[in-house]
Amino acid sequence: MSEDNNKKQKLLEVKNLHVSFFTPAGEVKAVNGISYDVDYDEVMGIVGESGSGKSVEAYSIIGLLQSPGKVMEGSITLEGEDMLAKSPSEMIDYRGSQVAMIFQNPMTCLNPVYTIGNQLTEALCAHDKSISKEEADKRAMEMLEQVGINNVEKRMKQYPHELSGGMRQRVMIAMGLICHPKLLIADEPTTALDVTIQAQILELMKELQKKNHMGIIFITHNLGVVAEVCDKVSVMYAGKMVEQGPVDDIFYQPGHPYTMGLLRSMPRVDAESYERLIPIEGTPVDMLNPPEGCPFAPRCEHAMKVCLQKMPPYVELGDNHRAACWLRVQDAINTQKEAQKKEGTEGKENE
């Protein structure tokens, strides 16, 4: 397939993905029918609280889903190739070169008994058998410089425990990008960092994304990070995508009560006066026994009888902006009735 044809299709397409974990207590539907796509040169944020299924769907994409987890149905295609049809050995070749992942905690992801240089060049040598050790070392040092690490020759010989948390996070980013993947999955890569280092890491990722023209899935629970780096956002709750849309629409015209709750619980720097943060009441649903209807209904202050009985359909709220909420369904019905009433009134006047 030519590069021009590649650019015409989406980089990544996830359709109706279901992932379950079969435990002694029963089936846990960790991901329950989500769909989204990521384009070239695009950053998509996946937002939601712990346990919403953000990391599970990421592991499904990259082929790292462990037993007792299993993809039950749906499809994942990267540049038109079926990722779920690939064998474990094919996925080993694919990981790193085509799709890479930065994991949550760099402190535990780096091997403490190998040097930084050894761990960086390992990825290069695994995907390019003809590369020499000298060339691999050179490219590893260039990558470390790109992620803002100084004195790279010294760093290559150091062990993870000799680096700070921020530097280890930069090493993890370098490791993810060293083979120039087309898709990068960043699973809360700044959670363990202080605010100043976090800002530097986000700026760095934006620069590298523009330079390498890759797509990024940015998994986080931090809406401030989403506003900083993402082009569009998918909001997850209890294994479902409850709202999707461009980042500006999600922040300024949220359509789902859960999204509104997340925004209300986040401090705003543009607030004109002191505002009390409002937490989302209640606890997340039991994924072993999820409700029949909307999973957020037990915690929603606007919940109606239908919310507890039936999952709402997606309602289009704008250009590429949609939310699954019965309130929005009611709004759409009312808008349609008003339009019909207006047409009827205008028709009488014309007579």
Automatic annotation (TrEMBL):
The record, for SMART domains, names:
AAA
**Which Gene3D superfamilies does the entry link to?**
P-loop containing nucleotide triphosphate hydrolases
Compartment annotation? Cell membrane
Short name of one Pfam family for this protein?
A: oligo_HPY
Q: Which domain of life is it from?
A: Bacteria
ABC transporter domain boundaries: 12-263
The membrane-topology field of this record reads: Peripheral membrane protein
Q: Which UniProt keywords apply?
A: ATP-binding, Cell membrane, Membrane, Nucleotide-binding, Transport
Any one GO molecular function term:
ATP binding
Main localisation: membrane
Please give the family membership noted in the entry: Belongs to the ABC transporter superfamily.
Q: What is this protein called?
A: ABC transporter ATP-binding protein
